[in-house]
From TrEMBL:
<dbReference type="InterPro" id="IPR046346">
    <property type="entry name" value="Aminoacid_DH-like_N_sf"/>
</dbReference>
<dbReference type="Pfam" id="PF21078">
    <property type="entry name" value="GDH_HM3"/>
</dbReference>
<dbReference type="InterPro" id="IPR036291">
    <property type="entry name" value="NAD(P)-bd_dom_sf"/>
</dbReference>
<dbReference type="GO" id="GO:0004069">
    <property type="term" value="F:L-aspartate:2-oxoglutarate aminotransferase activity"/>
</dbReference>
<dbReference type="InterPro" id="IPR049056">
    <property type="entry name" value="NAD_Glu_DH_HM3"/>
</dbReference>
<dbReference type="InterPro" id="IPR007780">
    <property type="entry name" value="NAD_Glu_DH_bac"/>
</dbReference>
<dbReference type="InterPro" id="IPR028971">
    <property type="entry name" value="NAD-GDH_cat"/>
</dbReference>
<feature type="domain" description="NAD-glutamate dehydrogenase catalytic">
    <location>
        <begin position="65"/>
        <end position="367"/>
    </location>
</feature>
<dbReference type="Pfam" id="PF05088">
    <property type="entry name" value="Bac_GDH_CD"/>
</dbReference>
<protein>
    <submittedName>
        <fullName>NAD-specific glutamate dehydrogenase</fullName>
    </submittedName>
</protein>
<dbReference type="GO" id="GO:0004352">
    <property type="term" value="F:glutamate dehydrogenase (NAD+) activity"/>
</dbReference>
<dbReference type="GO" id="GO:0006538">
    <property type="term" value="P:L-glutamate catabolic process"/>
</dbReference>
Length: 367
């Protein structure tokens, strides 16, 4: 049940034009096909099977599935069931047969790695690989444009289409990374069961717990390097080549999580050590240092120079998007005491102060 439910959730993220209720009805209305799908998955990935046995049984059950699908009368049900078939066929690895199937806090999760090019009807651009992590408390995904890829993990608030959000970010990261060796990657997760009291501290702790599950789901399917030799995950059938390179970075909502990710990597004895997650106590904290904002401020200086204005010495009226807790906006508003911020908004608040007193405002922002 968990397997079929997780594929349903992935298909929602992949943009299938059917609701989870529609997909559940298609499976319930064709129990024999649902059973065949699960059997095919187990034949492909059960490490207890011999390779020759797996190949022989795989051909047999594929023939049974194709024959059964020909008997499906509803076009919607046929499309849904074939979508399940396509996802299982595109899987390269899964944590399903690993033990234990729980994260460090005892919560169950399931992850699988997909060859994105073979998943039917995925929107463009298609990553090289993606890993989907499913658990009762969180769903998450990691998209990679190549074998050596780098990008951040975002705490998303988009329950139905966080993959769409992450895909757009990965596309942008591919462009940003053209001048360095790694190509673009991006990840994201959605917290499904935030605290009922809605307290900031409670939500933050739940986000950390969900982030931890996501990182464990990714590392569970990633090869390690020990004494110069690639070591695959235990009890894992692989349909791809050695793939030991995985790094993550901070993004919206996860700026302070690098130490947490590196701690998990240490628990896995992952070969990259504290280079797994950039930043943290042993690296650069891009938010504390204001690296991105400082770079953006140089562009601001250039634009104002062309207008004959010096923003470091002359008052400038500002309207913005963001808040003082943010990386780019928050740090950017501290780079000159002459910024007169009269309005700003983010996803939670609207700030309006048309009669701002400049010097007092600068002190308030720093505080």
């Amino acid at each position: 049940v968990a397997l079929l439910r997780s594929i349903c959730k992935y298909l929602v993220q992949a943009g299938i034009p059917f609701t989870p209720v529609n997909m559940a009805r298609a499976l319930a209305g064709h129990p024999a096909i649902a059973l065949l799908l699960v059997r095919w998955f187990k034949i492909r990935f059960d490490p207890a099977r011999r390779d020759d046995e797996r190949i022989q049984e795989n051909e047999k059950i594929r023939a049974e599935l194709n024959q059964a699908l020909e008997q499906v009368e509803s076009s919607d049900a046929d499309r849904i069931l074939r979508a399940y078939l396509g996802v299982i066929g595109a899987m390269l690895r899964t944590s399903y047969f690993q033990r234990p199937l729980r994260d460090s806090e005892g919560y169950r999760f399931l992850s699988y790695k997909l060859d994105s090019a073979n998943v039917p009807d995925l929107p463009l651009p298609r990553p090289l690989y993606e890993i989907f992590v499913y658990a009762p408390q969180v769903e998450g995904i990691h998209l990679r444009g190549g074998r050596v890829a780098r990008g951040g993990i975002r705490w998303s608030d988009r329950s139905e289409d966080f993959r769409t959000e992450v895909l757009g970010l990965m596309k942008a990261q591919m462009v940003k990374n053209t001048v360095i060796v790694p190509v673009g990657a991006k990840g994201g997760f959605y917290v499904k069961q935030p605290p009922k009291d809605g307290s900031r501290e409670g939500v933050f702790e739940e986000g950390k717990r969900c982030y931890r599950t996501l990182i464990q789901g990714l590392l569970t399917l990633t090869d390690n390097i020990v004494a110069g030799r690639v070591v695959p995950p235990k009890r894992t059938v692989r349909y791809d080549e050695d793939d030991p390179y995985l790094v993550v970075a901070a993004d919206k909502g996860t700026a302070t999580f690098s130490d947490l990710a590196n701690g998990i990597a240490a628990d896995f004895h992952f070969w990259l050590g504290d280079a797994f997650a950039s930043g943290g106590s042993v690296g650069y904290d891009h938010k504390k240092m204001g690296i991105t904002a400082r770079g953006a401020w140089e562009s601001v200086r250039r634009h104002f120079h062309e207008l004959g204005v010096d923003p470091d010495q002359e008052p400038v009226t500002v309207v913005g998007i963001g808040d003082m807790s943010g990386d780019v906006f928050g740090n950017g508003m501290l780079l000159s005491p002459h910024l007169k911020l009269i309005g700003a908004f983010n996803h939670q608040h609207i700030f309006i102060d048309p009669h701002r007193i400049r010097n007092r405002a600068s002190r308030t922002r720093r505080r």
